[in-house]
Design goal:
The protein is an alpha+beta fold. The protein is built from 2 helices and 7 strands; from the N terminus they run βββααββββ. The radius of gyration is 13 Å and the shape is globular.
């Protein structure tokens, strides 16, 4: 939905551990992983999550993660309802020009980049 792309945002507390995006319907973890990890481990980390007793957590797509970035904010460039670091977070989207890379969002400034999958970044899981 392009109306929310870098535009309107509406979040609410879904539970102690999760945030609901009221525009997309997605449920996000309030806090990401406590440690950085390579891309494959980030995918595994999300698929093994049982936050709020749900087992359908996954690593978000580039677009989903990028929607969270708020370039009107800085350090972190995300709504204050979230509790994440001003750092790099993996998406599940591979970089189409180089299969050794995947897209990340840098929540210090809210922009996306691609990085080598062997590098270590945080994971923020989503469901829905």
């Amino acid at each position: 939905d392009k109306s929310i792309y870098r535009g309107a945002r509406s979040y609410s507390k879904n539970s102690t551990n999760t945030i609901k995006d009221n525009l997309t319907g997605l449920i996000w973890q309030k806090s990401g992983s406590s440690e950085e990890m390579i891309w494959q481990k980030a995918k595994e980390y999300c698929s093994k999550q049982t936050t709020d007793n749900y087992k359908d957590w996954r690593l978000p797509t580039q677009e989903e993660l990028y929607y969270l970035g708020d370039v009107t904010k800085y350090n972190p460039a995300i709504d204050s309802i979230f509790d994440i670091k001003s750092s790099w977070y993996w998406s599940s989207t591979e970089y189409k020009n180089d299969s050794s890379g995947a897209w990340v969002v840098y929540f210090d400034d809210g922009f996306d980049y691609w990085r080598d999958k062997s590098g270590k970044n945080y994971a923020l899981c989503v469901r829905g």
